[in-house]
Amino acid sequence: QFRRGLPEVPIVRGDGNHLPLATASLDFLTYAQSWHWTDPDRSIPEALRVLRPGGALALWWNAAALDVPWIDAQTSRIERHFGLGRVVGGNGDGTHEALAASAGRLDFDRRHIRWTRRVPVGTHLANISSHSLFLVHGEERTAAFVDAERRHLLAVFPDGMVEETYDVGLLLAIRP
Ligand SMILES: C[S@@+](CC[C@H](N)C(=O)[O-])C[C@H]1O[C@@H](n2cnc3c(N)ncnc32)[C@H](O)[C@@H]1O
Question: Does 9 have pLDDT greater than 60?
Answer without folding.
Answer: yes
